[in-house]
Write a structure and sequence with these properties.
The complex is a heterodimer of chains A (1152) and B (213). Chain A is of the alpha+beta class and 1152 residues long. Chain A has 46 helices and 24 strands. The chains are: A alpha+beta (1152), B alpha/beta (213). Chain A: This is Rab-GAP TBC domain-containing protein.
Chain lengths: 1152, 213
Amino acid sequence: MWVKPQEVFIKTALWDCDETTLYFVLQRRKGHGKSKGLSSLLVGTLDSVRDTKPAPYRILHQTPNSEVYFVIATALTEQEIRLDWQWLFDNVCPTLHSFDTEEEITEFVCCKINSIIATEQENLTEDEDTITYKNVDYEFHQRFNMPKDEKLVCYYSCSYWKGKMPRQGWMYLSVHYMCFYSYIFGRKTSIKIRWADVTELAKTNSLLFPDSIKVVTRDDKHYFTMFLKKNETFALMQQLANIAMKQLIDDKSGTFNIDKDLLTKLSKNVPKKPSFLKRDLDARKQSNLYTLRFRLPQTEKLDGTEECTLWTPYNKRHNWGRLFLSQNFICFDSRVPNLVRLTIPLRNVHQVERADSGGTGSSGDSGSILITTAHHTSFLFGNISDRDFLVHKISELLAKLPNDVYREKATRALPREEGRGEWTAQPPLMTLFRTHQTSPIKQIQQKKEKQWEDHMSEVGRGVSMYQTTDGSELVVNGIPESLRGELWSVFSGSILQKAQNKGLYERLVNEALSSKNQANDEIERDLHRSLPEHRAFQNDVGISALRRVLCAYALKNPTIGYCQAMNIVASVLLIYCPEEQAFWLLATICETLLPDYYNTRVVGALVDQGVLEELTEVHLPELHAKLDELGMMKMISLSWFLTLFISVMPYECAVNVMDCFFYDGAKVIFQVTLTILDINREKLLNCTEDGQAMQILNSYLEGIYNEEAMALSTEPRTAERTIKIQDLIYRTYRTYGGSVTSEHIEHLRLKHRLRVVRQLEDSLERNTLRALQQDKLLEPNELQELLSAIREELLWAKRVPCERLEAPYEAYRLDYTQFKTLYTALSPWAKGEFAEAITARMFKVMDSDEDGAVSARGLSVCVGLATRADAQRRLRLLYCAHAPPLLTRQDLRADYTDTGEELAADAIAFFDSIENPTTPEPDASSSLHRSISEVCDDGNMEKSSDSTNTQSGSSGWGEGAITHTANEVRACAVWGVWSAASSPGAGACAGVGAGAGAGGLVPPAAPRLPRAHFLQLLAVLHDLTQHNLKLYEAVVLAGTLLLQLGELNQRRPELDREISQDSLYLAAAAKQPVELDPNGNATEPEQSSDSVQKPPPSPSKDDPDNGWSITLEQFLATILAQPPLEEYFNENISILPHLEALRQRDRLHSVS
Amino acid sequence: MGTREDEYDYLFKVVLIGDSGVGKSSLLSRFTRNEFNLESKSTIGVEFATRSIEVDGKTIKAQIWDTAGQERYRAITSAYYRGAVGALLVYDIAKHLSYENVERWLRELRDHADQNILIMLVGNKSDLRHLRSIPTEEAKAFAEQNGLSFIETSALDSTNVEPAFQNILTEIYRIVSQRQMRDPPEGDVIRPDAEPADVRPSQADSVRKQCCQ
């Protein structure tokens, strides 16, 4: 390994020279390899005393006339140093002769070595990313327009198959993207794929694409090839994709954080990687494997590992294996699989000491340490090459343990304080509800207990028992009932969780029982449907305990809450374990052993169905084909997995499977399932339909029996006996014990997770699209694009769609920022000065539950209405968005610093524009002119608007005036769209009661618009039409008319009805031929006013001070009477170009 | 595989759907085994049972798939709708929420089941008279509006359970046999056609004559 050239002065001290040339020397450290003698012994000692052990081989650079030597390479093995030596000869030596001076030679050599180091191994600094890496990082952000916070993880040289041509370039892997860039012969290839869009990653080797990595997204396939480190690259890609998928499952925002803690942990032993992040990911991966292997809490971070031996007292042997160290545990696993495994929680550690050899001469004596626990058990590790470091490290970790858990005393827990809760935790229900065992069964149980007692006297008891081959054999035979609780907790690691979270269960129960929520309701419904055949659950004692465990868990882990099947599993746990222990076992199952199984989409169970399918295909190909043909491959064993066989096998048999499951992990359920399928293969192959296959398996499972335990069912078992559970398990281990390993399962889970999550996403998207299409506003392709824009927006905000109960589109929830980005980009109304205001108002209309978020449908409807609906509906939406109580006085204030002034100013500007006919007057009748002047003559505009505002300010539109609720206004705003299926909850009964359900033929009444609100609306219209003179004039005209109408309404509120009729005529008069019906669906003036004047309450009557108002009908009629406006608001606008623009938008600038 | 039990003229797949705890499994066990357990395990994923009935001298084998009711299983259970020719949409007459959710279940069927699936709305637990929260008339009206048949049952006292299954199976049979008369079975495939009440059997082999060899 090349090292940065470093000066050394003494070339021979402690070193022997193996080879010497003019410019280079190859040296070997004394005490290594061949030479033996006093000095070599001395060096050996020195080395072990010092903390840093120098590598035993090195190459020096020398020049004949200099006393200064440079170390340029070091190595641990002779072979390695020889390689470097050879390279020097081949590459450097030939050129050295061309230099004149020795200084030049030295300079050249140092420079050469430095550059090798820089290119080959870009990281020498401990914690900072190297310069090279930073450059690449910069390039990466530039080339792909990445936001600043997108982190590059690693980059690799490779080729991309573009058509039949491989393009040499670089692959960049970042936290959310994989990218490829190449620039050859003036041709640029640039690819950018989001991990969340990847559906499949695979290593392939086909004729067409030899030895490549295949990346499949929903629209495309890419092949990359010629990797220098294909496996590393692939592993990293998988890991990143998986992180993306996990994010999609968990709905946690921004799950990915650099774990600084973890980073420093592994830095000592892990070879340097090009980036900080890459190291972090590697560390994360190793930690995951570690926690999985020893069933540790997932928060545990691996600190380091060390080869060593463990002395096992029961057979008096030293066993080679590896020691693992993390912040709370010391673990050991033997090199020979399953020989011995050990977990020592640091909190139990009492003493760590160097155990120097007593001279027994055994090989395990050098570098031994002895760890004694508080329970006076000792564990002896030997052959530790760096003992002092290890001892130091352990004491460091011990010192870091939080005080409250430090050194658990070997005493019993304090008796619970009385009266804290209304409940007491139950002991194993088995002990309260004894079953009468027949004497042969009793004997068997006693015999087993004896075996276990003997075994445990050898290997210890509790957390730190040696888990040995003998132990696993005993497990396979079935754990005796009395020991199940204890051993399940130890094997599963839940005992560690419990110890780390003292008192949590009690707190959770107290809180959970006092709260009321959906999870608790669901739990309540299932309490009696968990293990009804057991006497414990025919009784309140068991039921209450089950309620506590489930409710506490739902509270502890809201992402899971309560999922049916957990009740069944928990009830069995309660039979064997004390209540709190059962709770932690359940937690371990849900979070570690069967990850994501019980979450809101049962993702984990679906993933494992995929894994099972693949395993079946490999191990039972014929059967796989058959089951696939029957269409039941994916569903066959769902309940088997979800309930750990409890719901399909007699319960006294399923617990034997659970014994193995806790001991060996999730692979066991796959192995058992495969065995069951295998046994029934012939029968299944003869099936003609899915039901038949289902029945075969059901009756087989029901017929499994256990002669070593009492059947607890209150009803006799009627099923025909099929196989003894012990035989089934024995057969399982014999057939699949070796071939289906945990690593393999984990690997397959990774692979299938991609697919399952993608499918769920897709089906959610499909359902959403279908729902949105029912609104009949936007075209399907527009909706498709709109939805991907929404998805994109949510992904950028690091929020993922989370499936909710109501309707598919509710999964996509946009907060105001996201809504704004999309709405302003898409809606024709969100232009100009009022863009922000109108966006906020639309958001308010669509946020019907006022929770600060709008669903995908909300966006699609308000964009759709503005671009597709007829003029009436568009105007109604605009009108309602400005109506109280949606548009509140606060909103008016917020927009304009002072209530009156700006509005008034606006109004003045408005009327100025009318009075100064710089614009040619439209062909309006003279009466209209007169009416305008009337309005203006009526008084100073400023004054009048002022007075309106002050009035409204004081007594204003009091509570009495606003008789419309926000939701009524909303209903009116989107009438014709929303009515069909807006509130599914009430839908059924509403549909039944109201009949026809289609929302009625008449839109719900809209509130009258007070002056200030109307002016706002007018200002918006004004702003929208500015670009077009004709439109602008039309707005001015209509606006004037409406102001006049409002005035009329004010003057004679008691004549409300006639006035509004008058006003409609008046409006009609603005258009030469009286043709009020713009779309054929509006009505004649009289009818229209009739039909609409009845429903709306007339608040103005009670409130004479505040008479100025116009009605929706007046507004519609007046505006629509202007042909240019009618045309404008009827225009069909395609949003596709905007969507395209949105897609092309430079994300770099939009993300800070 | 030549036992008498396997002989049938028609095989119909029927699914039981509805909220958790409305008594789907109880209806199933009442119909297929004439058993009733006040307390049985909650259904996880799907369960399955069969029973054969006689209609017009033909043996109809009903394959009834009972599904988990909890919301989060919906995505999974909808996979089982495939090929079903009938559905019993069950609610609990004493639980208003389960009735309100009927609409959602209908949507679920529309989205995932064959278009022409025959649906029967079943108000279960009719024995709980004093707790009733959905009037029979209301449900009936709703069923009519949505083109569903309707019945109230009690798996506990066995009221109407038999008729419920009999009715839906008979109706399916009528439709299928009518169609068979019109277009004689060709390779056993029965295609859906324009008639509104058509029932499309799942696969080509859903309707089969004397399957045993």
